[in-house]
Amino acid sequence: MTPLQKIYTLLALYILTCNPLNIASAQSFECKADSLILRVFNDKNGPGGVFMVAQNGKTIYQNAFGKANLELDVNLTAENVFQLGSMTKQFTAVAVLMLEQQGKLNVTDPVSKFIPDYPAGDRIMIHHLLTHTSGIKDFTKMPALSSIAQKEMTPEMMVAFFKNEPVDFAPGEKFEYNNSGYVLLGYIIELVSGERYEDFIKKNIFEKVGMSQSCYASDKQIINKRAYGYHKKEHGYVNKTMISFSVPFSSGSLMSTTGDMLKWQNALNQHLLLNAAETEKAFDKYQLSTGKTFNYGYGWHIKEIKGVPDREHGGSIFGFKTMGVYIPGKDIYVIGMSNCDCNSPTKITGDIAALALDELR
């Protein structure tokens, strides 16, 4: 085939599949989604991302861009496993609600019930930890963080690292995103259940839902189809900075795939893990002590896209960024995962969700 014939062939394929006037709406949506993604994820020889759209519990769009491993020149696929970063908080919040459903704790319980020596622990409720309204110091903002970033920390050691820091405000007074609160929740899950956090999540969530490609993060264990994480420097891409996953712990140390995350979303919708009353708590809006309502439930931001209510959360950890958006009124789920913290899927995921609202019926 001559070069000119190749050009004509590619042009013909574009007209058949990505012509905006094509009457096949599914093809039109797929091409428009690709176009949104390629505005940012356009380096086919660099790290990239995987994106998925589902409606009514079933995948209707999925595509991968870039490399899963630069050194081995391996392309990303929909089956690659990514670090979730703060999307981990969804699982931690649901684990707490599962324990409440079992009668083992209550979200109105004070922290002092489980950690008697926690400063002002009688005033800080589990609810405050779940909603980022506790006022405790976020360990990610502490200058001393670098001194423990690569150390193996127990949950008790992590709590000790920040618990004596001055508080930023009184419990319930403000909403301020806080990773320490979710580390505390992971520790409480261990104290109440008698199991390690990672074991509790694996047995009570991953295995029940069938999330076979999801796990607690590790740089040492062999993880099948792992996507490797990268940073981008002036001279090019470099491997991600190594950290101990015992530091972010229950605030950011889980790994998953787009397919497993759809199983997770479907399990929430079908009440496989939580009854309707407990599920509603995760997605409710709450008030500060001032009476002001804020847009965060338990593990999810409660927002809107084009005036339509949605639930969303992102994640960022060395080498990875993630974003998930669920629109309950249309049962549309959109998720994006990047294996370079130089490329954020946040805006693209929101744009694809907005596109889905316009085009999917």
| Strand order in the sheet with the most strands | 2-1-15-14-13-12
| Spans of at least 5 consecutive residues with low confidence | 1-17, 20-24
Q: Which structural class best describes the helix and strand composition?
A: alpha+beta
Total count of domains = 1
Task: Work out the number of β strands.
Answer: 15
The CATH homologous superfamily name equals DD-peptidase/beta-lactamase superfamily
How are the secondary structure elements laid out?
Layout: H1 3-18, H2 25-38, E1 49-55, E2 58-65, E3 67-69, E4 74-75, E5 82-83, H3 88-101, H4 126-130, H5 155-162, H6 179-193, H7 197-209, E6 215-216, E7 230-233, E8 236-239, E9 254-256, H8 258-269, H9 276-282, E10 286-287, E11 293-294, E12 301-305, E13 308-317, E14 320-327, E15 332-338, H10 346-359
Antiparallel strand pairs: 1-2, 1-15, 3-4, 5-9, 6-9, 7-8, 10-11, 12-13, 13-14, 14-15
Helix pairs in contact: 2-10, 3-6, 3-9, 5-6
Give your account of this protein's structure.
InterPro entries: AmpC-like (IPR050491), Beta-lactam-related (IPR001466), Beta-lactam/transpept-like (IPR012338). The chain has ten helices and 15 strands. With 361 residues, the chain is α+β, with helices and mostly antiparallel strands. The protein has one domain: Beta-lactamase (3-Layer(aba) Sandwich). The strands form five sheets. Strands 2-1-15-14-13-12 form a six-stranded antiparallel beta sheet, with helices on both faces. It has a three-stranded antiparallel beta sheet with strand order 5-9-6. Strand 12 and strand 13 form a beta hairpin. The longest helix is centred in the N-terminal third of the chain and has 16 residues, at 3-18. The protein is globular and about 60 Å long.
